[in-house]
Amino acid sequence: MDQTISEIIRFTGVAEDRLFPTTYGRTALLLALKSVPVRGREVIIPAFTCPVAVLGAVIESGGIPVFVDINLKNLNFDRHDLRQKITKSTAAIISHHYFGMANPEVVINEHIARKHGLVHIEDCAHSLGAQFQGCSVGKIGDLAVYSFSKNMISPQGGLLQCNSGELLEKIQTLYNQNSAGRITGLLANVDFFIFFCRLLIVKGLFESVNTRFKPNLLPYRVPPLLYMPFRFADILLKTQHSSGRFYSVSREDVLKDPSTVDIKMTGFQKYIIHSRIRLLHQMNAKRRNIAERLDRIVPHFFLQGNDQRFVYTNYVLCTYDKAKVLSLAKKASILFIETWPVRGKYWKEQNTKNVEKLKREVLLLNISPYWSEKEIQEVENFLYKNKTLFFNPPG
Ligand SMILES: Cc1ncc(COP(=O)(O)O)c(C=O)c1O
Predict the structure, then answer these.
(1) Which residues make Cβ contacts (< 8 Å) with residue 236, sequence separation at least 6?
(2) Relative to the CA of 158, which ligand 1 atom is closest?
(3) Residue 220 and residue 55: Cα distance in Å, rounded?
(4) How confident is the model over 272-294, as a mean pLDDT?
(5) Which helix (H) or strand (E) is 4 found in, with range?
(6) How far is Cα 128 from Cα 145, in angstroms, rounded to an integer?
(7) Which one of 174, 233, 295, 336 has the minimum C-beta count within 10 Å?
(8) Whole-prediction pTM value?
(9) How many whole angstroms separate alpha carbon 142 and alpha carbon 92?
């Protein structure tokens, strides 16, 4: 068996013939949607989602995105809105496990999907390694997609997991039809460049737990000036392998024929992911440990239930004054990031009542398993000092 796959199976617990390693999480989603197929039909997605990756995949597969508002208590679909949005034309529904959490409500989404004969896709892009009732996320829907670049430093990479006997053959055919990832794309691909920058920042490459850098120099942060020329090259050369492809989709593309996008994970990605994923259990445990400490100061958006195990890809906080927190954090060299719809193209239909609220109040703290004890304390002190700026999440 492919060694990378055998490492991946330790997380997914699913047989090899049901796993399809892809270039990105978004291409895994694209493969999933093409297998349904969703062309010319509606795909239900939460309004609170990544406009580039998720929306891009829906559009690229010829699907028509339908946005459903989210429930702030559980970050799942607003059930009333969901019921209203399902029509005869609906083909699929995409549930989300946000920011390293495990969303128990996917069970309800699964019931709804069964009742209406829809294909249910679990988007686990942020939550590789998260568990619910002792099982890894991604076991409930017909299909599940993962990304290897969210809680791991990797040259991108994703995975489609097929839990449905009916869709398996179709996915195998589509996957085998796709050419292996082209090397040409690599040269101009900004994502690979970013990956190498991350590795340079994380001195000692793979086992760099002891590196010392301020929290704002997380391995996730590469100055835009360094990579912008590559991004332009990406777009100019239209490298199909790159995520740049997804930056150029627009509403008008919905009805157009999608071009072929490289879907299969490249050998290079497999090689690196193999060495990274072996550390993931350890990294996730470190993130959990840091999150537990922060939870005592300012609670995370969700309380982790006894039957859940989060991986805290981001620590999610609610604040009364986002601008103030961001400016104070900058001074303290602590990296907070804003959630969607801040970056990328957001469709106006995505600006629902609750998404607007999240946009105003939610901030993500990029927890790094590479933080030293001193750095963890710096973050703890920052939260103590500014505790009054935060409030308990609605749940
Ligand atoms: C919710 C969600 N799903 C899927 C993806 C796709 O992951 P990738 O970046 O590996 O394509 C992302 C990435 O931003 C995401 O936020």
Answers:
(1) none
(2) 10
(3) 23
(4) 90
(5) helix 3-12
(6) 10
(7) 295
(8) 0.86
(9) 10
Residue 158 beta carbon below 6 angstroms from any ligand 1 atom: yes
Q: Measured between alpha carbons, how far is residue 38 from residues 109, 162, 264 in Å?
A: 18, 16, 20
Beta bridge partners of 42: 64, 90
Answer yes or no: is the C-beta of 245 below 6 A from any ligand 1 atom. Answer: no
| 3-state DSSP assignment of residue 231 | helix
**Is 314's C-beta closer than 6 angstroms to any atom of ligand 1?**
no
Q: Which residue CA neighbors atom 3 of ligand 1 most closely?
A: 125
Domains and CATH numbers, the chain: 3-177 (3.40.640.10), 183-258 (no CATH), 279-391 (3.90.1150.10)
Q: Which two tokens stand for residue 177?
A: 């039809």
Dig out the tokens for 252 from the structure. 């008008």
Distance CA 255, CA 252 (A): 7
Task: Please give the pLDDT value at position 126.
Answer: 95
C-beta 71 within 6 A of ligand 1 = no
Q: Report whether residue 42 contacts ligand 1, using a CB cutoff of 6 Å.
A: no
User: Does residue 48 surpass a pLDDT of 70?
Assistant: yes
**298-306: which pairs have CB atoms within 8 A and are 24 or more residues apart?**
298/383, 298/387, 298/390, 299/392, 299/393, 300/393, 301/75, 301/99, 301/101, 301/362, 301/393, 301/395, 302/75, 302/101, 302/393, 302/395, 303/395, 305/104
Take atom 15 of ligand 1 and give the residue whose Cα is closest. Answer: 50
CA nearest neighbour of 340 among 370, 318, 360: 360
Q: 318 versus 62: which is more confidently predicted?
A: 318
Please name which of 40, 43, 42, 39 lies closest in space to residue 54, comparing C-alpha atoms: 43
Q: Which two tokens stand for residue 257?
A: 């024929």
Atom of ligand 1 nearest to the CA of 29: 4
Is 125 a pocket residue for ligand 1 (Cβ < 6 Å)?
yes
49 lines ligand 1 (CB under 6 A): yes
Atom of ligand 1 nearest to the CA of 49: 1
